[in-house]
Amino acid sequence: MARDDNYSAATERQALLSHSNGGSGGGGTPRRIKSAKWILALNTGANFVFYGMDAILSTYADKHLGFGESAAKSITSAAIFLNFFSAVPGGYLADTRLGHFKNIVLGCSIMLAAVALLVVASALGEYAGISIGLHRGLLLAGVFVFCFGNGMLKPSASAFVGDQFHEDEAEQRSQYFGWYYLAVQVGSIASSIGMPLVLQYVGGAAVFGIMSGMMVLTIPVFLLGSRSYNKVPPNGKVFANFVRVLGAAWRRRRDKPAGSHALDGAKLECSAGDVEDVKTVMKVCAVFIPIILFWAVFFNMYTLWNFCAKNMDRRLGSFTLPAGNAVALNGIFDILLIPTFEKGLYPLVERCRGKPFTPLQRVGWGHVASILALVCAGLTQYYVDRDPGTVSILWIIPQYFWISVSEVLLSVSLYEFAYSQAPSALKGMVTSAWLLCIAMGNALDIALGQIQGHLAVQNFAMAGAMFLIMLVFILMTRNYEYATHAVVDTTEDSVVGDGDAEGRRPSAAAKHSINNQ
Q1: Which residues contact 153 (CB under 8 A, 6 or more apart)?
Q2: Mean pLDDT in the chain?
Q3: Where are the beta strands (DSSP E) in 245-359?
Q4: 307: part of which helix (H) or strand (E)?
Q5: Which residue stretches of 314-412 are H helix?
Q6: Strongest mean pLDDT among 23-37, 178-192, 345-359
Q7: What is the C-alpha separation between 287 and 359, in angstroms, rounded?
Q8: Band of residue 196 on the pLDDT scale cut at 50, 70, 90
Q9: Looking at the predicted structure, is the pLDDT value of residue 340 above 90?
Q10: What is the C-alpha separation between 363 and 38, in angstroms, rounded?
């Protein structure tokens, strides 16, 4: 796994980069941290709507609009991809034009407009008898607009949580990233179970009406903390600086000192700080690349594992469990595992080792858990194929447990990693790169789903691929040098330290190559 000596040293030096108290107005917990609970509430509501849309879209498109099962699945897969891919322009707008706070408000407003359009379309289709063509067109338009709004929200929501903490509050920030992910799961479980039932027994207009109501409630709840939030201002030149560094590095590639970094030639035309920021972004994004396969494995829950559940004995007493409800196990396990790991496992591991349990080390062990999940899935599928309809649905629990362990170790850790390692002015765009990996994993899952063959063999083959990817990841990250970047504090009662005249705190200058100290 990744080395931890530099992480420990970086942790010890974080206080040197922070304000003395930062917005508390005295003793106790700063108001900006207390107000983070409203961001978590926003995340719960927004993800209730997102996962509710995901849970019913395929059925609604198939049963209510007559697209057919294949086309409905394609629409759902495309919507999931667009939701995460749209985070790229969303992160760009946050870092260069709007800032995370305004980006969140605008993204939520667009989501509200989209689900309101879907309410109107569903009501007209169910009660006014509009043409099926118009109904389909309104649905696709609403889904597309929803994806763009959610893409604006996603990179800013997690980054905005991190913005409420200084670097000497890293432990609190780490816990809040865990609670952030927990909020995702609470919203996910509630909507994944509830919205399909509402669609089945009431109708589409009721489903989208509930989603609209949730967004109407979520936005003002988020605004309750508006006066206390630490709102880092955008840097309109940050993307232009990024591109300029890459161009300068290419033009000056023969002028850089021998044996130096490929980007060091850009220092002849650009500031050293801008060059170091680009180096950091490229280093962090390189860590994300091997994780694409994990997300392809994760999305098996909605494809290969769902097909497996359909062919199992789903009777629980007198009740027959719908195959699609098995995916709720993931959210249930996440809710149990996140606080257990944050409060129990991680501190225990650190006490036993006498060293920090770093984010990249957690990711490495997350790979191990994903391999165990695939092995369990392959074994279950093997016995289901031998005797369909007789294997109890309870045998699917181990694979969901291990994929949930993997998700908590890997995904929660990388949300925190993406924020903490990104330069101050590029946190939204780096988080967008992380979300783009999720989109690519979803696309890979769709592509792998076209391969014909035994499903058990596919699970075992992916377990072997994950093992190889794990080795690559360990080699890539074993000497990773953790960086610390100071956070801009804009709260009214913050203590301005060594920033510039506008209160901005240093970015690239705060980076430490700990191994050399």
Answers
A1: 46, 90, 103, 104, 107, 108, 111
A2: 83
A3: 315-316, 319-320
A4: helix 304-310
A5: 328-340, 346-353, 359-386, 397-407
A6: 345-359
A7: 12
A8: confident
A9: yes
A10: 28
Closest CA to 483 of 240, 282, 182: 282
- The residue type at 227: R
Q: How far apart are CA 304 and CA 300, in angstroms?
A: 5
124-to-131, 132, 138, 142 alpha-carbon distances in Å: 9, 10, 10, 14
Cα distance between residue 399 and residue 455, in whole Å:
14
- Going by C-alpha positions, the residue among 74, 79, 86 that lies closest to residue 51 is 79
Give, in order, the Cα–Cα distances in Å from 415 to each of 48, 175, 276, 360, 371: 20, 12, 22, 11, 21
Which amino acid appears at position 514 of this protein?
A: I
Specify the range with the lowest mean pLDDT, choosing from 109-113, 240-244, 483-487.
483-487
Give SS3 for 202: coil
pLDDT at position 352 is: 93
Q: Which two tokens stand for residue 496?
A: 């301005």
Q: Which amino acid is at 176?
A: Y
Cβ–Cβ under 8 Å, residues 406 and 376: no
Distance of CA 125 to the CA centre of its chain: 34
Q: Which has the closest alpha carbon to 191: 324, 306, 82?
A: 324
Q: Residue 241 is inside which H or E element, if any?
A: helix 238-251
Q: Which region among 192-196, 342-346, 489-493 has the lowest average model confidence (pLDDT)?
A: 489-493
Percent of the chain with pLDDT over 70: 88
